[in-house]
Every structure is written in structure tokens, then in C-alpha cells.
Specification:
Number of helices: 9
Structural class: mainly alpha
Low-confidence stretches: 1-5
Shape: elongated
Distance between the termini: 42 Å
Mean pLDDT: 89
Number of domains: 2
Helix content: 55-70%
């Protein structure tokens, strides 16, 4: 299955994959300029140059479409580079900085997509699960040999809570990395 097909409701041809990519890009532009409330599947379809019915063939709702925008940004994050001498704390801090900053440069889009990721429906739920699994895998990789699974769970919860708070406007997205590194410092104090 193509990458474009992984988050839509059916397997896609290459031509259909191009349409899906255009819809995702158009939805991001819509969300940046109109925010969550002003973004619609119809608006994204119009911007992408496709019929609304075509857009609904691939995305069940605005939340599904915007959650996909967020997933694509997560999926494309770079992996931090570690060497053999990098401590667990340094690895986790580097990963948390990447995970914490991935939406800081585009806060209007971040707020819209965070709202969408909390939406209902099986399509949004599937993206949310994939999202959580990716964050968990990245954090687990950075912890490597840490045998205390409670640390991983606490870091997962800290990250999701920090992103939710930022999405709700309680803290700035730019503050997320330092807040998360502070949590990691508390959890991994003996590992530094």
C-alpha cells in the first residue's frame, strides 16, 4: 500500500495518491489561514481543485483530513543522531526537542491539527493510535537499555500533555521542548 493510502479508507492508484497529497497540502493552507473553525473539507477540495465528493471519498471529515496533516509532519521528522557515548538523558533530551518543536514553527496549523486529532470517528482514532505508537517508538529508541518502562510511560504522558496544553493555548509550542527536557531530567536524574 502506498504512503498516501495508509491513512485513507481505500487503496489508491498513483493518480489518486496525487489527489490525496493535494488535498492534504490544501488543508494545511486552509488551516493556516482560517484556523480550525474556518477549515472545511469543501474549502480544501476547492483549493486542491477537486470536487468535494472526491475529497470525501478519501477523508471522512475535517478532523480526519487535519489529523492526516499532523501525522504527515510527525512521520517526516528527522531522527536525532547519537553515538556510543551519548547518555540516556542526552538521547532522550535530543528526541524530546525534535518531538517538541515539530509544530512550533506553525502554531495556527498546530492548534487546528491538535483539535482535529482529538476528534471522533474511526479514521481519526486510527491516526491517533499511529501517532501515539510513533512517539512511543521514538522515545523507546532514545531510552535504549532503560529497563524501567515507567519512565517511557511518563515521557509519553508528558509529551502528549505538553502538546495538548500547547494546542489549547496554555503554553507556547516553543516552550514545549524545554518543559519536556525538564521532565526527562527529573525522571532520568541518575542516568546523566
Amino acid at each position: 500500500m502506498s504512503i498516501a493510502a495508509e491513512n485513507t479508507r481505500r487503496k489508491l492508484t498513483s493518480k489518486q495518491g496525487v489527489v490525496v497529497e493535494r488535498l492534504i497540502e490544501a488543508a494545511a493552507v486552509e488551516a493556516r489561514s482560517l484556523g480550525y473553525d474556518g477549515t472545511t473539507v469543501r474549502g480544501a477540495a476547492r483549493r486542491a481543485g477537486v470536487a468535494p465528493a472526491t475529497a470525501y471519498t478519501y477523508f471522512a471529515s475535517k478532523d480526519h483530513l487535519l489529523a492526516e496533516v499532523l501525522w504527515r509532519r510527525m512521520r517526516d521528522l528527522p531522527d536525532p543522531v547519537f553515538d556510543a557515548s551519548t547518555s540516556a538523558f542526552e538521547r532522550v533530551a535530543a528526541e524530546l526537542r525534535v518531538l517538541g518543536l515539530f509544530m512550533a514553527d506553525d502554531t495556527t496549523l498546530a492548534v487546528a491539527c491538535t483539535s482535529a486529532l482529538l476528534g471522533n470517528g474511526p479514521d481519526v482514532s486510527a491516526i491517533r493510535e499511529r501517532f501515539g505508537a510513533e512517539v512511543n517508538a521514538r522515545l523507546a529508541h532514545s531510552l535504549r537499555d532503560s529497563s524501567d518502562r515507567r519512565v517511557l510511560r511518563a515521557l509519553d504522558l508528558a509529551w502528549s500533555g505538553a502538546m495538548l496544553w500547547a494546542g489549547l493555548g496554555h503554553i507556547a509550542f516553543t516552550e514545549v521542548p524545554d518543559a519536556l527536557v525538564g521532565v526527562a531530567s527529573l525522571l532520568l536524574d541518575g542516568a546523566r
